[in-house]
Amino acid sequence: MKSLYIHIPFCKSKCYYCDFNSYCGKDDLIEKYIEALKSELKEINCNFKTVYFGGGTPSNIPSKYIIDLMNEIQCDGEITLELNPGTITKEKLQDYKEAGINRLSIGLQAVQDDLLRRIGRIHTLRQFEEAYNMARSVGFNNISVDLMFGLPGQTVNDVKESLNYLIKINPEHISCYSLIVHDELVEKHPDAFSNLPNDEDERKMYYLICDELKSAGYVQYEISNFAKPSFESKHNLCYWNQDEYYGVGAGASSYINNVRYKNIDSVEQYVAAVINSQNDYQVVEETQNPESKLKEYMILRLRLLDGVSVSDAYDRFKVNVLEVFQREIDKLVNLDLIEVEKDEHIKLTKKGLDLANIVWEEFI
Ligand code: SF4
Question: Of the candidates 135, 179, 194, 296, which lies 20 to 30 Å from 362 by C-alpha distance?
């Protein structure tokens, strides 16, 4: 079975650090966009393993559209919707629940309102708290919360405060991403990116996150993701396991039959092309051969703390990765970036978690 990603590119306003395919001020396109998504979904017409509504801000559009889309989808597994606390009401949450959404991913990023303002988030901690409590009261029992570190003006102590708060409210899943500074965004919002933490503090923040969440009963299962046992994101695991998925909507990617496709980013062009039944809204980004597929598998699986299973790789590719990549593995083991456990699991070491880019480069 395949997974499904649905991209909702509409946001209330643009966060200063955001380079996702998302737009504000295009709400007049929402209705046509949903029609286009429904047409794309009709073409696919299958039973999905997991579904993920991402964005953009899925919670920014009226919930009737989410219900409409859910009516087009068959899935008995995990169905996640991303929400921004500045866009949510109890009625919307009830609609999501009734429509079959069973997991929420809420963007908090930090508990300090001044930090949230500084990066252009539209909500306060209080609004997050209201959204979170409403979600619980409506019956959502699988909630993920996003945190960011390395933010401008953020201290290690600020991260500690955010962690303390999250551990207290006890979501099932926490994602922690380091701010990526894009040059063109710094040019646009120079003030928002001044006073960034130095590398040493940024690493301290990451170690603190790993240690504190582990002590609180979360399992780190991927470089940036932590979950209570059995609450790992099934949808994201599908990407890291190199499983097949469809992506619908502007800018969405799909991976089917060893081919990676991408839809065009422009909402207007996507809507026009789908509604006029033109198929030029999708381009082939990569057609994999067995060698490129195996290399990608290594890179994706090494993001997971479980790492590459030699036997799983053999089942999929009919090769022994310890032999195929003997030179790369020896080099990385000598650098203390990966370890091989019992000839079965190839995993990042603690140092490798920090320098994962160097590890991936060996498999490109
Ligand atoms: S809410 Fe998310 S998608 Fe929208 S602008 Fe902010 S970071 Fe980007």
Answer: 179
